[in-house]
């Protein structure tokens, strides 16, 4: 997605070896216009797939996911990373290891929001090692729902998340694919949409 | 807001003495249509206030806040509840005690996203004791920005959050105000919008 790649080049900051900071438009301050455009592109890619639910994970996935849900006219569910006293029963969980934060957390979705009739599009901000998306796929499959695809805003194509998901037979649609960081600059691969 | 009150009566669940669970449309599964309508109502209430930024706190505030930002055509910022390795410098913080979770957490916003020229509308899902909103006001004022108002989806009017914020001279706009829970049912006060 050209608009996104242009924005990454303009406002993204490469930190160290492999961190891209996009806190001015995605992960902290959010540009709703860009989110809305991304929502259209994701929704268009899956418009003939019969999607019934969009699933993301708190917190940076929520803004892009709700705009995808709007265009597809379906509910959005955000998985929880933290325990909540009002979540008491019927909770589906998966353990997710974050290489960035170096902690394992329990990701959860209330089972009542997913059924065997659901066809799910996962949306998330980043794909690197694929651990978060893998955890979401695990939870969605526990509910008997079908994972149709994973929509990613920014993929680090030099890490193995994409192949991990494709090995599970899940379609991956990334709006920006980073081939490498070179002298503190982002070098893109051809994106999926 | 009639649409919201009707939805709370239809799909909200009262747990114990003072917990209202709205996980089917706001705090876990999200109804984008309702978020969009709420965004319009909040934006209309502040359309003449010269708002330049909408600020919320992860995670349940993000979906309503981004739709407010869309109507007002301004950026949305979501404050972080957890430390992040890519947030390194110029971070403004406040300590926030959650009576629900019984923990104190450090809420933060990168100072570079707020300036003395900013007029801020805070948006959050719940107002009870007002601790989260108070922390956000503290951070926004540290940046030299003006807090024009606080837009709340569901206010527990029997707790003291509203008076705490109004004592600071901040306008509070709640779309649903809960007077009390009676026999497991929600009894509303007159809402602000």
From TrEMBL, chains A, B:
Keywords: Cytoplasm, Glycosyltransferase, Purine salvage, Transferase
Domain of life of the source: Bacteria
Record-linked Gene3D superfamilies: 3.40.50.2020
Enzyme class: transferase
Record's keyword annotation contains Metal-binding: no
Phosphoribosyltransferase domain span: 39-157
Pathway: Purine metabolism; XMP biosynthesis via salvage pathway; XMP from xanthine: step 1/1
GO terms, molecular function: xanthine phosphoribosyltransferase activity
Family annotation (InterPro entries): PRTase-like (IPR029057), PRTase_dom (IPR000836), Pur/Pyrimidine_PRTase (IPR050118), Xanthine_PRibTrfase (IPR010079)
Family: Belongs to the purine/pyrimidine phosphoribosyltransferase family. Xpt subfamily.
Record-given protein name: Xanthine phosphoribosyltransferase
The species this protein was found in: Streptococcus caledonicus
Primary gene name: xpt
């Amino acid at each position: 997605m050209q608009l996104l790649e242009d924005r990454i080049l303009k406002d993204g900051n490469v930190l160290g070896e492999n961190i891209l900071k996009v806190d001015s438009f995605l992960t902290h301050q959010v540009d709703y216009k860009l989110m809305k455009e991304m929502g259209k592109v994701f929704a268009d890619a899956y418009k003939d797939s019969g999607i019934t639910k969009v699933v993301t994970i708190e917190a940076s996935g929520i803004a892009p996911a709700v705009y995808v849900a709007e265009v597809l006219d379906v509910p959005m569910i955000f998985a929880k990373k933290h325990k909540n006293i009002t979540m008491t029963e019927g909770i589906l969980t998966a353990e997710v290891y974050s290489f960035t934060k170096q902690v394992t957390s329990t990701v959860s979705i209330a089972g009542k929001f997913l059924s065997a009739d659901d066809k799910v599009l996962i949306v998330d901000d980043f794909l690197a090692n694929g651990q978060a998306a893998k955890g979401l796929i695990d939870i969605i499959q526990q509910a008997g729902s079908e994972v149709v695809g994973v929509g990613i805003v920014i993929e680090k194509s030099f890490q193995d998340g994409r192949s991990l998901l494709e090995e599970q037979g899940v379609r991956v649609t990334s709006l920006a694919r980073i081939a490498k960081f070179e002298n503190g600059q982002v070098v893109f691969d051809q994106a999926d949409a």
